[in-house]
Amino acid sequence: MAQCAAPLQICAVKVTKLASNGAPDPGESSIYVSDNFVTLNRQVQREDGQRIQLNSGCGKPIVDFRDCDRNTGVTLTAGLGVLDFELLALLTGSTLIVETEEALGLAMPALDSPCPTGVGIEAWVKAVSGGAQILHPVTGELAWFRFVWPRVTWSYDGDLSFQGDQANPTGLRGVVSENAAWGTGPDADLPVFTGPELIYLDDDTNFPTVECEYQALAS
Fold first, then answer.
1. How confident is the model at residue 1 (pLDDT cuts 50, 70, 90)?
2. pTM here?
3. How many domains does the chain have?
């Protein structure tokens, strides 16, 4: 049965550190789950299909071929509502400043730094129909759209302004890549896919634990 539900509200984002080959990288500080994203937007870049036409000298169409339009890339933009040093370090490759085991600062990467390895991104968005979140058709639990981007390289984006009458999120921009080494994800609970994005109808049992600190990923 088709599930006719709309995605509504970004409630959790899980960030997974990747090894140089693109696989989830086990370690004590490899996972971060946040519910402080104010916005998360996805844009698909597209290239028009080539059109080839040929007419006779009398104006009769001989060839009229149109190739299909093709997706050429996926870009994410996000607004993070808090200055979370550990999360931003994991996302952007910034240097975390730690004193007595407490994260107290963040140093932006040098302007000539090489591109970071990137991170895996999973986002949980309510699956809503009418005025309520739907139930998962298999488990009967509350259903979530789980958006998965298997490798994203992030950079800071836009202005960070300080005003007396307005709060402003930290802007981020991420470039998505395909990543065969992602496999079934860090928790081995996702279908295998080869493209830059997966949208999967999941339920409450796989909703991640939100913490304001790193989480471990077992090997």
1. very low
2. 0.90
3. 1
